[in-house]
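User: Hi! I'm a student and our assignment asks us to look at how structure tokens line up with a sequence. Could you show me two examples?

Assistant: Happy to help. In each example below, the sequence comes first and the structure tokens follow. Example one:
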Amino acid sequence: MYPFLAIASAMQKRGHDVLIASAEYHRKRVEESGIQFRVTAPNCDFSNAEFQQRAFMERTGARFFLRDSMLPQIGRSYRDLLDVTADADLLVTQTLSFAGPLVAEKTGIPWISAVLAPLSFFSYADSPVLAPQLRRVRELMPRLNSAINRAARWTTRSWSAAVYQFRRELGLPPGADPIYEGQYSPMGVLALFPRWYAEPQPDWPPNVSLTGFPFWEERHIDTETESKLEHFLEAGDPPVVFTLGSSAVLDPGSFYEESARAVRRLGCRAIFLGAARNARDDMNHRLLTLPYAPHDRVFRAA
């Protein structure tokens, strides 16, 4: 959501009327940013711990999230988005906006798609590591990249059945696989990262624009977190920040324990972001654990 909040805020500053349509889970953060919000299906509850854990399981997470949770709701998603875009001049979608391409194709609304990371291009020329156990194989035998990519597509070939069925109901041709090429707009694709992060590949869509990272400056932070953070930052030397990605925080393993040992050995101060809410702030006030804090606030003082 954050990159799209950054884009929406920038467009708003240029005088555009902007609306974000997504799950109810995102409403508070979007509206606190001064941006209009509408709920659209699939209205997944991302605050549900069980849902998060199932969605990010290494072997079955993608199947649960896409095949079982997102794609079967394509009809509701389409109708919701059709209503939201009735008076819109432009539709911007992200990788999981499966109804977006259908609305654009059916109504003719100008449409731009966006990807957050190179992974979403599923490049044969620069194939992503789809499973940890394949990393070594990929490094030793680059020619297997395309075979691994094809295997992934074969595994997911039936997941989009609900989308193909709904396209038939709308009187649309089958189209490209919505998980892969079907997500890219012929008008233009925004790659929301810089060139140094990933060089364009020959099998990317022909109309990709690398935008750099869209940074969003968060306006709101809860009072308790603000107080703890400011007190800690003012109490000593700049800290080292330890954090994990959006899915890794659900199963950090021994990351924070090992990080704490490193902090003890170095004798430095540290902030652990994404640490459990009941994690202790110890080591003579040299460690602060927070479930969340805006990175721009933390990193500028680190």
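Example two works the same way, sequence first and then tokens:
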Amino acid sequence: MERPLGVQNKLDPGDEVLVHFKICCPNIEEETSVYVIGSIPKLGQWKVQDGLKLSYAGESTWQADFVTSINVFPMKYKYCKCSKTGNLSLETGPNRELSIDSSKVQPKYIFLSDGMLREVPWRGAGVAIPMFSIRSEADLGVGEFLDLKLLVDWAVRSGFHLVQLLPINDTSVHGMWWDSYPYSSLSVFALHPLYLRVQALSENLPEDIKKEIQEAKEQLDGKDVDYETTMAAKLAIAKKIFEREKNLILSSSSFQKYFSENEEWLKPYAAFCFLRDFFEISDHSQWGRFSHYSREKLEKLVSKDCLHHDIILFHYYVQFHLHVQLSEAAEYARMKGVILKGDLPIGVDRNSVDTWVYPNLFRMNTSTGAPPDYFDKNGQNWGFPTYNWEEMSKDNYAWWRARLTQMGKYFTAYRIDHILGFFRIWELPDHTMTGLIGKFRPSIPLSQEELEREGIWDFDRLSCPYIRQELLQEKFGTSWTYIASNFLSECQKGRYEVKIIVPVDIF
């Protein structure tokens, strides 16, 4: 066995042995060192200041070695962490022990790979809150990204270590208060303009805009958020500031850097927002020749030669400032030692940028939900298309990797809502109203043999629902014959099927 680098000449002939310590310590703060202390003088006799300081070897591993006499064995030792200010954290559990079998040939080298430094896992408390609820005197009608700095200060004073937010992506699908639901994303990359601090868009706001901001603040500073009015006020003010400073901002090196790093999603997002407003609907199937996305169409839509180019630039401008403001808040949280945790919804809105650009990644004729349970006897139908995992796998899940990378710019941790959906999802036909007639995807089917073994012989009953005459009489009384003749067809004697195409789950 080769000797460790740097120790080839440390040993003298006779009774000396080189001991090499190695420990894994992934949970360590800046300016903190790792020591090994123990029962012998060369390990400090349990005094940290006289112990053996380990060096960082990469990949959370620390190591050091020393030469000692055979006579010191057996010896006891432990690892510990010591901060620059002198705070000591000794590993838990019994002392580690190293001994030598005197009946065997005495070793010259002992290599100790001691696994993980034993310590109680770190635990911390936090607060979960919607972004729109983090109100301050500076906001305009709703919590804003820069308000996070105040919440971080409060968390530090209160002993909290984590701030968890609801989703913060743009949800502007309907152009009304329905969009206040944070789990129905228009884009999984774009941030919501609702959380923009308009007075931070410029250091040189004219008096008329300052007055408009103040009047809007006074109007919207209520107990509840007026979503529609707040969105309208912020976008109107932002457009006025944009008209004044667009050339300065859009030509800046910081914007150019942001654009080059984000144009892959930023261009489609801006084009989608323009088309949504032009056609007055987010359902891209209603956009005529723009219903089907292509790179060629996109480049024409965002071209500098288009009459609507300023509209495209405005969406770039808003997203850039949202990025700047959230980045400032996220960096502030890191500096204060507070974890900022984001929320990653399992679905995207059916009428979203992502389904327009990547329709092959979604099963657009389906809907996501949850089966009937104690919480809701009818189950749940969330309206989001399910994922086409087979198609996603062809490019090594590039869409997911890009989505997580984007979140990683701001968040240290993620909440995935819900993690079960990555393994199996309750999938419904897209025309259904409730969560009743779905099935898990993927799922393990039941064989005919298994069904027969359980005494089930009427297989059609499991897949082709019918209504018994007794049920019609119970529900409709003497009118049951009218219902049967006008809306149903008799498939077997006393059994009826729905004649017209309606969602089966309405019955």
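Here is something you could point out in your write-up. The two ends are 77 Å apart (CA to CA).
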